[in-house]
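Form 7-S
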Amino acid sequence: LETMTDGALPIKTDNDAVLDAARQIIKWSKLGQSLSLYVKWAALYGDCAIKVVDDRAGQKVRLELLHPGKVRECEFDEVGNVKAAVIEYERVDDPAIADMRLARGGSQEARTRTPYTYTERITRDKFQTFKDGEPYAFYTDANGNPLKEWDNEYGFVPLVVARYENTGLKWGVNSFYNSTRKIDEINDAASLINDQVRKSVNLIWYFAGVRQSSELSAATAAEVKDKVPAIYGPEGSQPYPMIGNLPIADALANLQNMLSELERDMPELALQRIRENGNLTAPGVRTGYSDAIGNIQNARKNLDPALVSAMQMGMSIGGFNRYDGFQSFTLDSYQRGDIDFDIRE
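Output:
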């Protein structure tokens, strides 16, 4: 954060005011701890939302990561900016310390809390909040007044949706959407092989010559280490293991072939194998890992601009409220492009 030139979020700008404001937003948002979650959610689900929160009581503006499952609906304009959005999810309020009662063991025990559906509707004109579908005052303004609806003074929706990979549709796709069926097939094959190994250890025996239960002596479990059951039949009975003859080595080779094919589809998976070879050099890794590096750069191309856009919104909101360190910005700064900056490689 000292120079903003290193780490996972190096800022590229010649404007010191932008650099200072970016540093402040990162601190207020604790973004250093959240960046990996931002990438993880986008790669796993295809999308991740960033909400710009105006904390007027605390005189701060921060970025809040939203799990994509919380964004129920969005409307986008021609260039991908959010025009309207509905954020909705099940919520349980944290217990108030004063409401906690003493349990029998002496520890504090919270009273039963009832979950409810939290809904927030945002347009370019106003904000609205609901509890279980009914208007409810979740928001408190700078004067401490609870509000269930208030004007959007910014002129834009302070929400950005980042797509891991853009296909031209409303929502993005995740990092493995083309390989899902292969992953399922690999998991199925591995499960079958493990099941067969388990059957080889815990055999089911068929006793030939045993016709009915009256011919059996007392059924007993042999007192051995693993408690393997053994049933003793009449003289002349022959035990046969009931297990198919699966060539485990061939099955494992087939599984490895499928894994290799998946690695060709998802070259990011090759990094561990490259490391195991030892004697790594930077040119060698770049050559052997070039297609994976291309995928990572493609993800950055989609994820970095959304993060920049959210921070630009935060700077404009901070300037509108005249927060300390943001006085050189206005709401028009975001619209005019006066606070353009980039994220370095």
